[in-house]
Write a structure and sequence with these properties.
alpha+beta; single chain; elongated; two-stranded antiparallel sheet; 193 residues
Length: 193
């Protein structure tokens, strides 16, 4: 009976320690998490690090090594599309998907800011954890982003998934995207025909 009591007592202590560790980890994650106040683009967010529910200047965070596809056609996106050997419209389609994911899933959610790699006058570059997963890895695996610079030296290189990008673009190509000119009330295809 004494031996059985000792085993039971040891199991109870181990279970209590495990429960304590799990509760500590959950509490620690809660303390480290911050709400995403606004999605500027799929890889650029206002994150409320001071918990005042206001988007302050120093709360603008950008993914550090991963770039999400963009929805705005400009010289930068044209250059990026060429680097990725994509046409501009495919780049914008992938940007549409990435931005809508960020708006639907990330906006208003809690994230954990990992290591901040650097800050400049505009952004804080950081690793962002969303629902327990590195957001950069998630974007790469799901064809929503690509590596920023020097891809072969990046820790993220193994997550880059060009097949998924192509698959996403093929699926979006089945949709009939149009643009409405609000002045003339005329619909245009994305290729302006």
């Amino acid at each position: 009976i004494i031996l059985m009591f000792k085993k039971f007592f040891c199991i109870l202590i181990l279970f209590t320690m495990l429960l304590g560790f799990v509760l500590y980890k959950k509490q620690n994650e809660k303390l480290l998490s911050h709400k995403v106040l606004r999605v500027v683009s799929a890889d650029l967010f206002y994150i409320d690090i001071n918990d005042n529910a206001k988007a302050d200047e120093n709360e603008l965070f950008k993914l550090q090594d991963v770039r999400a596809f963009d929805t705005v056609l400009n010289d930068y996106t044209k250059t990026e599309a060429k680097k990725l050997m994509m046409n501009e419209f495919d780049y914008l389609k992938a940007g549409y998907l990435a931005y809508n994911f960020a708006l639907d899933e990330i906006s208003g959610s809690d994230v954990i800011i990992g290591a901040i790699s650097k800050s400049d006058k505009k952004y804080n570059y950081a690793k962002i954890i969303f629902k327990g997963e590195d957001l950069g890895e998630f974007y790469l695996k799901n064809g929503l982003g690509y590596l920023k610079e020097n891809p072969l030296n990046s820790a993220y290189f193994s997550y880059f998934n060009p097949n998924q990008i192509k698959s996403n673009i093929d699926e979006l190509s089945k949709l009939d995207f149009v643009i409405l000119n609000l002045k003339s009330k005329v619909f245009h295809n994305l290729n302006c025909e």
